[in-house]
Write a sequence for this structure.
């Protein structure tokens, strides 16, 4: 389907018109990203992510015991386009903390591995459950 | 007769060249990613990995990439700005056929030849 639409100028044109008309308004998205301390735009739902990158983000947040809003962009093409424009970021997943765009999967992974995610969460008043687990297992080990 | 021979020689040379080019350029997007990053970031290390085979796409597709870029240009830039820089450079590719771009952006100081893990497996959402 994608190949077909990409090659045929009529289809491409139609697709652009649809895309233009169906991009979710930036106002709506602004509300969405501020609705919770952590908000994720992903492919699929947390119980069943439909993309490896989205799944990685879900797993990381699960490890930290974070409650978050998740929006499935595969269910809503206008949201898929709208969020890319809002954050000026070309790919999904996208993570927002306190309404601020953090990045995609690679950045989340790096924040997680460096320990910075724990701090980022702390800044908005979320205590990562990894801290508790670390305390139990290795009381002397530093957080990083 | 001589000139005819010459023409046909040139002709076959042209054919040969065209053929050679066609057989090499079966990865135009990868080449374009490579040249854009090289030109703009002058990386001390650059690796472009086509991960499309991991997904539900035709053989030889160029849809999913991972790039490892080590460049002085990233000095003092937070991670998100490094990613934005790469995304911006590859805007055309991302608006065209490239669907996923995983980025590892480091400064030479940060770069120790650590093993880079492949991107996570596809979960079927692509192509739907």
């Amino acid at each position: 389907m994608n190949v077909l639409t990409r090659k045929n100028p009529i289809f491409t044109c139609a697709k652009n018109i649809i895309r233009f008309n169906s991009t979710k308004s930036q106002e709506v998205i602004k509300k969405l990203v501020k609705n919770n301390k952590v908000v994720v735009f992903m492919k699929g739902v947390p119980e069943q992510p439909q993309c490896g990158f989205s799944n990685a983000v879900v797993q990381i947040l699960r490890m930290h015991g974070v409650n978050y809003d998740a929006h499935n962009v595969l269910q809503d093409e206008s949201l898929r386009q709208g969020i890319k424009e809002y954050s000026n970021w070309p790919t999904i997943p996208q993570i927002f903390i306190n309404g601020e765009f953090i990045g995609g999967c690679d950045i989340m992974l790096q924040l997680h591995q460096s320990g910075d995610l724990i701090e980022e969460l702390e800044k908005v008043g979320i205590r990562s459950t990894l801290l508790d687990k670390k305390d139990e297992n290795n009381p002397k080990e530093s957080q990083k | 007769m001589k000139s005819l021979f010459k023409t046909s020689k040139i002709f076959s040379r042209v054919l040969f060249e065209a053929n050679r080019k066609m057989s090499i350029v079966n990865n135009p997007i990868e080449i374009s990613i490579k040249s854009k990053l090289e030109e703009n970031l002058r990386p001390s290390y650059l690796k472009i990995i086509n991960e499309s085979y991991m997904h539900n796409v035709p053989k030889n597709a160029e849809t999913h990439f991972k790039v490892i870029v080590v460049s002085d240009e990233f000095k003092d830039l937070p991670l998100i700005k490094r990613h934005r820089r790469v995304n911006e450079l590859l805007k055309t590719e991302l608006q065209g056929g490239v669907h996923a771009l995983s980025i590892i952006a480091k400064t030479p100081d940060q770069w120790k030849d650590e093993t880079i893990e492949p991107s996570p497996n596809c979960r079927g959402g692509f192509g739907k």
User: Anything to note?
Assistant: The beta strands of chain A are 38-42, 44-45, 48-49, 69-72, 94-97, 100-103. The CA atoms of residues 7 and 21 of chain A lie 21 Å apart.
